[in-house]
Amino acid sequence: MSKTTIKNEQNFIKNKPYYEPVGDEVAIFTAAYENQLPILLKGPTGCGKTRFIEYMAWHLKLPMVTVACHDDLTASDLIGRYLIKGGETVWIDGPLTSAVRHGYICYLDEIVEARKDTSVVIHPLCDGRRLLPIEKLGELLEALSSFCLAISYNPGYQSVLKDLKQSTRQRFVALEFDYPNAAIEEAIVIKESGIDESMAHKLVKLGHMTRNLKGNGLEEGASTRLLVNAGKLIHSKVAPVHAVDTAISQALTDEPDMFQAVHELSRSIF
Amino acid sequence: MSNQSRQNLLYRIRIQKDLEKVVGPALNRLPNLDTIISMIANLSDPQQVFISHWAGLIADSNTELAAHFISFAPKAFDTMVDADVQKWVDLFLKKYDNHGLGKAITLLEDISGFAIDQENKGVRCSLQQTSLFLQHFIRGLGGRELKISGNDETYTNTEGLFLPESISLFPQPKQNFTIYKLTAAHLWAQTWYGTWRIQVLEKLTAEYNDQKSLNIFNRLESIRLNYFIARDFPGLSREFSEFENRDPKVVALWKLWQDRANGLRSPTATAVDTIENIHHFLDIDLPVLQPYQGEIFLDRIRETMLSRIEQEQIAFQKSLDKLRDDNAPKDEADDDDFVAKQMLEVSDGDSGEGEPSETNFQLTLDGQPIELSDDLKNLAGSIMQDFGEIPDQYMDPMEQGEYSDALLAQNGESEGDTDPDLNETGTFQYDEWDCTRQRFREDFCTLRELVVPPGDESFISDTLEKYHGALRVIKKCFEAVLGESRPQRRQPDGDDIDLDAIVNAHVDMTLGKDMSDHLYTKYRNQERNVAVMFMVDMSGSTLGWVNNAERESLVLLCEALQLLGDRYAIYGFSGRTNKRCEVYSIKDFKENYSLEVRQRISGIRPKAYTRMGVAIRHLGQMLQKTHARTKLLITLSDGRPEDYGGYKGQYGIEDTRHALLEMKQSGVHAFCITIDSEAQEYLPHMYGTANYAVIDEVEKLPLKVADIYRRLTT
Ligand SMILES: Nc1ncnc2c1ncn2[C@@H]1O[C@H](COP(=O)(O)OP(=O)(O)OP(=O)(O)O)[C@@H](O)[C@H]1O
Ligand SMILES: [Mg+2]
What is the pTM of this model? Predict the structure, then answer.
């Protein structure tokens, strides 16, 4: 069995991704897109930001370039660089440049992780004329009209070194995400994991219990992603309490008292 | 007299004389001294030595207690193994130290109780071991915060769960642990499924405030609650039945009650229905309570609830007023009339089913739904737990006059404190934010800088000793922070060649451009450009444990910070009234971690109150003057801001919040580490959701502070 590798810039999403709208985010994203405004997705981990942008890429029929930012990511990683091929120098577009050039969606995931100098290239792209300065080529690349810049940011981060600068955040239309309400979250868990309604109801209830503990021994409650993961294990016949222990409790904490509390909470509802 | 008995007599006299020597005349006041002496005479030599040794030591504190000890020691040796006798002595001595003579003697005399306790030790589960777990567990279940504490009686007052200090009902410790969990859960269920709605409380107080009715109510309510628990928490419900009383008579009696009260086992049954059932049960026997059931103390519930309801109504109306204000169109915002006329409406969502649900709570302003802050959501949730809805009058705007009643504005003059000389050097004036008037009180606070007097240096070495192992781990983590720093690319010189840079240079060369000579990678860590100010709460409430933990935290932190090389300063703060605000220098930015600094850390002692705003302004300014890219202000505290004369509640919180906002605007990041378990109520508002940490146990503070610092700055 062979899998085709997908080149980042050709990531054209053919099948409709499953996305359960939580509010008016689809309409707002569309409106921002039509007005060529860049978009900031804010929200805790695993609440559906990535899934949403994939859905929007499909919806707008645009290929999407995703860059997972890390703390060694520099501006030239985004823009591109010269390489040497057989003595010749060849310019290779970075993911951002290729999205700008061809009019794709460019999604910079966890932007705060990237080095500070990346903001230098992002800022002019967010302004009225949407330009990307490519210093090495001595070019100013104007974005194709269909180009769309989206970034994500998790405000729960505690490190003060990783706060999003005002000058950056104020250039974006911000869409705030949170864990969906119980009914929607149940629907997501059912659809994603294949478990039945009553089991999904319990998982979501457990999710809420762990979210009650946020800030009091837990840094974060269980995300939708974790609930889906537990659901998948249960669907594959793992006993519910055990599935929760492995997919949720262990992921949330290392503290024995807290682990036991989450464990007992899950025992109480199954 | 035979030789033998003469010998015995002499022996006993010698024992008595010896004991008299250590205890004094108190010995002769013992009623049956002769019997006691002859019983002692029958003990083994080591036992006798034990008695006279300890009698001497105890007599140093109190001769009365020593005499009592002598009179009960023979019985103690009779009922217990020798090792347990020692524990018995330790225990009543501790009681004496903490609670005085009366309590100590009561404990001392209860030898059989102590012996049973000793035997149970293997099976017992103590609250101390379980309270942290229970606190998490109950919080997870949801609803208003319930504080867990130990008590001789098991009950809830709707803000706390009171549980026995230890449980040894069952032969396995694990079973006793489960009893803790089930008892806490059952009491929680009362607060969650509406046992203490205000209507219920009023009806019980008015019509059924006698012990018999309350006993019946407790049992019937338990039948109703068990129905809901079975529906929503099948796992818990299974455990409830596992631990129920198996005695056939008891089982039969409960069955009879359940059958007669069948109407209560329905999703629509409320506690009012329970009350209406009471009179059907006056003529039948009361079943004994199940092991997981607590008792009911109506007065304690009433007292807690009424004061909460009053406070929450004010808080709620004030929040809504603020919402109206914030959402009013700009040009109308000053027009009180307009603001008051906006239509705020609430829909409780129809969770029905007897479960209060703050998540379904929706507020609309002139038809537009509004986002609620977490504070307001919690407040609304708590109100719904009391009323089952948000009462209509809660939605009315507050009368203007009510502000000043509920929230006394500060009166600086009335303190009667003499002004310290304002020209004194090291005296500073600061504004304070008055939320009742929405403006600053100019130069309202006078602050002086003092230096902590040096304390005993052995505290430092003791701490280092005590946390020897932990410190190694902390240091390792901090070293990892340094190690983490990535190789620096494109350096003019370095440890390794930067391939990327070479390729680039090559390209430049072929393109005929200048070739850069920044071709190396350097593995040295990037310079951490961090300056941090630690602001330590020295208010009176930190006396004891907290003060100790704060000092220990600072010691560990300093050790770890030496490694990172971050610039840091440590100041304490306290004060009494706006005229006498004080900050205490422990280490300024320029000082090294010297002997003096260590002695000052050791010398930190609780002072007076917590006027936080002014301390933040002063220390924040100091921090701003340092040249660092990242500036951090970290507060270690044990509670909310509070000072003499009105600096409390909302006023103190708002001033502190304002001071923090001023800091934020000038580029200082503020973070708070607290051990106040109620911090949830005000810290998110003051510091912002991600900017604080609550430590559950004081003992953990020293370890956590270093850990939090590391996470904050990497
Ligand atoms: N609204 C939604 N519709 C469908 N699936 C969802 C939705 N929200 C969350 N999920 C589920 O949660 C999982 C995690 O979501 P996603 O990967 O988009 O999170 P994220 O917000 O990007 O998290 P992170 O910040 O950690 O990257 C998805 O794989 C999907 O199963
Ligand atoms: Mg993602």
Answer: 0.68
